């Protein structure tokens, strides 16, 4: 299955999600390929750190050119594509070949608006496809403080959008995500009992229920 992790905004957590998913699937012994289609190359950087540190399992990275040869992706159980807007042609091609598109949405009005724009782009690019890709959105970088209701408001806004399925599992804004990433580790490797790891496991289980059997 080809899962594209995308949004129109930087900083929403695309590379973080793509990297954690790649490591999580590798633990589950899936034959997984990650494609970094963002010229910012954050996914490439974190995979390099992981390699330098010698952490196992490793993450296999492929060049974005491969997006134009989707038939070659068939040998992998799972393909993850990290896309940004700096390379619009790659972003559109990723949308064309995606089985599904995963959209991390920080809880702000600006991010809701940009998600609506992204949904329109997906719709326009998918017009010539037989079937449009499944689009899944979830809250990333949610607030941890109970008194702050921004995540709930953003969730309510996402639920009401057409052509997107809302995933209720959220990831909060936690240092565990940032720290693990900078060390080349998945959040569940650095501290499996952290809240971040628990949130991660819940989200991953929704995204890949078959992996858990
Ligand atoms: N849930 C989270 N909690 C804390 N920091 C996060 C979380 N998700 C992402 N980040 C941090 O936010 C920054 C941007 O994330 P990144 O994955 O690079 O976003 P994008 O690829 O969408 O530009 C990074 O410093 C990353 O560590
Ligand atoms: Mg990125």
Automatic annotation (TrEMBL):
It comes from the Bacteria. Residues 4-184 form the CobQ/CobB/MinD/ParA nucleotide binding domain. Transmembrane segments: none annotated. InterPro entries: CobQ/CobB/MinD/ParA_Nub-bd_dom, DNA_Partitioning_ATPase, P-loop_NTPase. This is ParA family protein. PANTHER family: COBQ_COBB_MIND_PARA NUCLEOTIDE BINDING DOMAIN-CONTAINING PROTEIN (PTHR13696:SF96), P-LOOP CONTAINING NUCLEOSIDE TRIPHOSPHATE HYDROLASE (PTHR13696). Gene3D superfamilies: P-loop containing nucleotide triphosphate hydrolases.
